[in-house]
Amino acid sequence: MTDETPRSARAGARGLGRGLSALFGDDETPATPQKQENLRTLPIEQLKPSRFQPRRHFDAENLDSLTQSVREKGILQPILVRRDPADANRYEILAGERRWRAAQAAQLHEIPVIIREMDDRGASEIALIENIQRQDLNAIEEGEGYRRLIEEFGHTQEELGRALGKSRSHIANTMRLLTLPEEVRAMVIDGRLSAGHARALIGSRNPAALAQMVIDDDLSVRQIEAALRDEKTAKTKAAKPPRYKDANVDALEKQLSLLLGLKVTIAAQGEGGALTIHYRSLDQLDEVLKKLRAED
Questions:
Q1: Which band of pLDDT confidence, cut at 50, 70 and 90, is reported for residue 6?
Q2: 27 falls in which pLDDT band (50, 70, 90)?
Q3: Domain span holding position 280
Q4: Domain at 22, CATH number
Q5: Is 97 inside a domain boundary?
Q6: How far, in whole angstroms, is CA 161 from its chain's centroid?
Q7: Domain boundary among 119, 148, 173
Q8: Do 25 and 140 belong to one domain?
Q9: Are residues 41 and 138 in the same domain?
């Protein structure tokens, strides 16, 4: 979160719990001396990644770019940490793991940190929200983050939307990606499949096969939607029960077909129905009309 974060977003975010309160500070006034005491420099080896980190994939190119920036300018924004509950001599990263990784790659020996007192619940919440707000997650990780915030911390989609500047429909649609098979979710995580393409696959009878077609043939979202419409049409036709005819109607169809020399079908509809004579040329139609007039 940068200093340019709107006040309204910060105010809404505070309603989410201790995690965001710690991330943004308890108010919007300049840091007090007591808060300044939490700002210090630590040896880089004393820091460790949080076990609550929702992100599993770190883009190598972006990390290389950040490493170059850190090498030239250092760490401009302190990393948020808490004391490791299992080791008093180490600190667990709450927000800023990418900066810590870049600092390691840049071979820095020390790193600026802000130390906050926080329990496991707060640490988990802040790790989720910080990554979502910074848009550091892929769509699957983002969806998992929303789901955890809702299931573990009792937040609603509306609350998350207001606090994070997202629409409720965006949160709902992102979470729907989690219903896709694991192999399709993996395609989104590694970047082979976009979130838009993945959303279009939801509801398909075989999303994995269709996802591979998207990758192999470079299909657009509209092409996926068209394929799904065709799939649903075929499924509907296959679901229609076979039509059974009355024996008398079947016999009458055969008699009329022999009489006219053309295929005749009868569709009963209540007390009425429809009689259809099938012809393949105008000459056949003329022959039928002649026979009908002869009967007159």
A1: very low
A2: very low
A3: 247-295
A4: 3.90.1530.30
A5: yes
A6: 15
A7: 173
A8: yes
A9: yes
Q: Are residues 13 and 158 in the same domain?
A: yes
In a domain, 178, yes or no: no
Residue 122: both structure tokens together = 């707060």
Active-site residue flag, 125: no
In total, how many domains does the chain have? 2
Task: Choose between 206 and 9: higher pLDDT.
Answer: 206
Average confidence (pLDDT) over 65-93: 88
Q: Are strands 47-48 and 91-95 parallel, antiparallel or unpaired?
A: parallel
Residues 151 and 264 in one domain: no
For residue 124, being part of any structural domain is answered with yes
Distance separating alpha carbons of residues 296 and 294, to the nearest angstrom? 5
Helix or strand (DSSP H, E) at 188: helix 182-189
DSSP string, 99-148: HHHHHHHTT-SEEEEEE----HHHHHHHHHHHHHHTT-S-HHHHHHHHHH
In whole angstroms, what is the distance from residue 268 CA to residue 274 CA?
A: 7
The residue annotated as part of the active site, out of 97, 130, 141, 142, is 97
The pLDDT, as a whole number, for residue 201 is: 92
Strands (E), the chain: 39-43, 47-48, 79-83, 91-95, 110-115, 263-269, 272-278
Indicate whether 168 and 264 sit together in one domain: no
pTM: 0.54
Across the beta sheet with 91-95, the strand order is: 39-43, 110-115, 79-83, 91-95, 47-48
Secondary structure element (H or E) that encloses residue 213, with its range: helix 207-217
Among 45-59, 135-149, 197-211, 229-243, name the most confident range: 197-211
Please indicate, yes or no, if residue 95 is contained in any of the structural domains.
yes
| Contact residues for 285 (Cβ-Cβ < 8 A; gap 6+) | 279
Calculate mean pLDDT across residues 185-193. 92
